[in-house]
Amino acid sequence: MNNKSNYSTFLIISGIIATVILTAGCTTPQEDSATNELIVAISTDVNNWHLDKFPGGDARFVWSQVYETLVRLDTDLNIMPGLAESWETPDDGKTWIFHLKESVYFHDGTPLDANAVVFSYSDESYVKKMGALRSLDHIETIDKNTVKFVLNRPMPLPFYLTHVAWPIMSPNCIDENGDFVAPIGTGPFKFEKQTPDQEIVLTRNEEYRGDEPVLESITFKVIPEASTRVMALETKEVDMIIKLPEYEVSRLENELDINVYRKLTTFTDFLQFNCNNGVFNDKEIRKAVAYSINTEQMLNTVLEGIGIPAKGRPLSPVMMYSKPELDLYEYDVEKAREILSEVGWQDSDNDGILDKNGQPLKVKFIVGKDAWSSRHVPMAEAIQGALQNAGMDVDIQILESGAITKLENEGQFDMILRSGYFVWGPYPRHFFIHQSSCPYSHYNNTEYDKLANAADSTADSEKQQHLYYDLQDMVLEELPAFYLVHEEKIIVANTYVKGYRITAEDPWLNLDGVYLEGKQ
Q1: Is 1 a residue whose pLDDT tops 80?
Q2: Chain mean position to CA 86
Q3: Preceding peptide of 507 cis, ω within 30°
Q4: What is the mean pLDDT of residues 65-71?
Q5: C-alpha closest to that of 147 among 92, 71, 72, 207
Q6: Contact 186, 67 (CB under 8 A)
Q7: In this structure, are residues 84 and 157 in contact, taking their beta carbons and an 8 Å threshold?
Q8: Rounded mean pLDDT of 171-187?
Q9: Strand ranges (DSSP E) for 232-343?
Q10: How confident is the model at residue 18 (pLDDT cuts 50, 70, 90)?
Q11: Of 86, 94, 186, nearest to 145 (Cα)?
């Protein structure tokens, strides 16, 4: 072989090597990963897939992969197009017209159209019967891609339609008899199968209109115990977990192969009082509770410093119209005791529990046995100790949702520890919980009802801000509830999970752009 041949051979080999190197450098995350099957641990199963019931617990994290809404929010709660590309109101909020994106298809191949929107907000839907859209008079189809919502009163409808609990579903979700058949949405993942109380498997929607997901599938594993979820993450049985207990955060933040994502969210923990019956019918006793609880200390001890102490503030700072300057409750147990003494409660037998007219100051305190249990039970115990220090005998009862509903309906409770409620995105619909017309309300005040209705019956943001500011002042004065902690959302994943961006919206799991790299 001559020198010219050797040189030609060298060029050919060099070209092959360069091609290999360049190709390796251009490998997509999907090609580079041994698997792109994400496994996420959740605390509760999906109890419902149809529009006629509310998806409780962690179900909405799963729904957000299968179903989509007309209007969406970005990671910082700014409103943006969803299945609707635009919308307008011709009459200051009483009528809203939505223009649907074209060439969007459901998982069964049928096109998204105005009829599907009408179906999703029919009289059979939960949101129409029991939820936020009871003010919806009717929906009209203008053409196949345009739909008109006609309301009984003005309201900021686009913010309502961001909630994944009332998304757009295909009419083919039900059969000719009206029975539910299967979950059929437009989302980036399709329903594959569900093993009750064990797992839900979703597969990639190959026809998704946006950027096609890199993930081939998502398996949501139901692991009720928080400590077991953490163990499953550390042993790589799962790739990501939702609702990490606060006491595990600092330890996992120091683990080299684990990423902890945190962001202040829209949810706030609160004590809801039974203002209609029992001891908390007296506003002064509600105020004594507020002064007895050191929310800052609770945050730093029970919740490991994660979140923001609310001190009575009803809205998280990330919410629309959260008033920056409020007259909050600073911890002052002596003031609490003074208030109780002024309304006739004394420790006549020196047993540490106040009494009045021969009756001890007893409080039945309800805590749910649900997705928030790992957080709420230790919070309840701290509250119990704080109120005992002020002279109250607090009995904690940890109950399933059915038992709580029964006690609520009968009025047989004094306080309930809750989180969220009528919270979706940044809009402060939460104030509905204290209106007398709300099924979860235990407070009757006609002035409050008028103010809350006025705030929710305008599309004028300046007027609305003024009204919601007044509502926050009124809640702090009247105390239908005492707000404890503004929550942080916590998502934890192994470091081979790439591209995850946490959102302030809760409950919502943003998996746009997520892929696995180097999972063994």
Answers
A1: no
A2: 25
A3: yes
A4: 97
A5: 71
A6: yes
A7: no
A8: 96
A9: 240-242, 258-273, 308-309
A10: very low
A11: 86
